[in-house]
Design goal:
With 294 residues, the chain is mainly alpha-helical. It has a domain at 111-288. The protein contains twelve helices and seven strands. The strands form three sheets. Strands 5-6-7 form a three-stranded antiparallel β-sheet, with helices on one face. Strands 1-2 form a two-stranded antiparallel sheet. A hairpin with a 6-residue loop joins strand 6 (118-119) and strand 7 (126-127). It starts with 21 loop residues before the first helix and ends with a helix. Bound molecules: zinc ion (ZN).
Length: 294
């Protein structure tokens, strides 16, 4: 039997939502064509098209691109960015037609669909029309954090969210909770989370904490920066956020010091050192060591 090199698209087209993975797309596309994934894949196999069982096998992605008449870029979102795992997550339910469910990888997006002003983390997506601060934070995410390779659920984001959660004023939290229907903890501190993640991955901040200067000057600078994001208030414990940020600073200094003594490129679990101006020197050292005769 001749192996088909090209499959005709199914008759009813299905729009691919940005970042959507093959699993939910295949299921939606099959349903709209009055069938199911299993039957369609069996029929395609019977035509001689080689198809392994692995869900993300390249031939399966290629097959559904053909059946959906999709561009080559479909289903190619990266698995990792800057060493951070890009999670498979629920897509904005308003972006999908007819209340269908969709899952995908969105490395360039935080937890907000700006088109529909919607929080998309967790089971209960919620409207953000009355919580403009979260929309502004999302714009900053896309403008500043996404180009730095920061993704949701990455260690840097989890650290920033923890700092925001322990350091924010309770009154601010209560006031924000009134403005959204499903006030999840991550949503209520999203503006501060994004600001702290931006601070910790900012070149000028990293340069300041990693240069040779007295520890008290660095400590004063870190205090100033944290207070500008999480101001002093009677019902806030911003010192707890400051303690976490300061611990991070000390850990980064240790990593860099060790790399200077031992050689090699400093690696930090938050993937921020790559934005430090001094990072390039370590990469050059490694190249020289790898090619000693050059
Ligand atoms: Zn949307």
């Amino acid at each position: 039997m001749n192996r088909p090199s090209f499959l005709d698209p199914l008759p009813v087209p299905t729009r691919l939502v940005g970042g959507e993975g093959v699993s939910t797309y295949a299921s939606r596309h099959a349903t709209r064509n009055f069938s199911n994934v299993k039957d369609i894949e069996r029929a395609v196999r019977e035509q001689g098209y080689p198809l392994r069982n692995a869900r993300s096998a390249p031939e399966r992605l290629a097959m559904w691109r053909q059946l959906g008449n999709l561009r080559e870029r479909a289903f190619t979102e990266p698995q990792t960015v800057n060493g951070n795992w890009v999670i498979d997550r629920a897509l904005c339910s308003r972006c999908l037609p007819h209340l269908e469910d969709g899952m995908g990888r969105l490395p360039w997006v935080g937890w907000v669909c700006l088109k529909h002003k919607r929080w998309i983390e967790g089971d209960e997506q919620t409207d953000l029309a009355r919580f403009g601060e979260a929309l502004v934070a999302e714009r900053h995410w896309r403008g500043r954090l996404a180009p730095r390779g920061v993704v949701v659920d990455s260690p840097l984001l989890l650290l920033a969210e923890e700092c925001a959660t322990v350091g924010i004023s309770k009154v601010v939290l209560e006031e924000r909770a009134e403005r959204v229907r499903y006030p999840s903890p991550g949503l209520l501190v999203y503006p501060e989370t994004v600001k702290i993640a931006r601070l910790l991955s900012r070149t000028s901040f990293l340069d300041a904490i990693l240069r040779e200067s007295p520890a008290r000057c660095k400590r004063a600078m870190v205090e100033r920066e944290v207070r500008s994001i999480l101001p002093d208030a009677e019902d806030a414990e911003n010192w707890r956020a400051l303690a976490r940020v300061w611990d991070t600073v000390l850990a980064l200094q240790d990593v860099v010091r060790d790399a200077r003594w031992l050689g090699g490129v400093p690696e930090d679990r938050w993937s921020v050192l790559r934005y430090w101006s001094g990072f390039a020197q370590f990469q050059r050292v490694e190249v020289v060591q790898a090619h000693p005769l050059v």
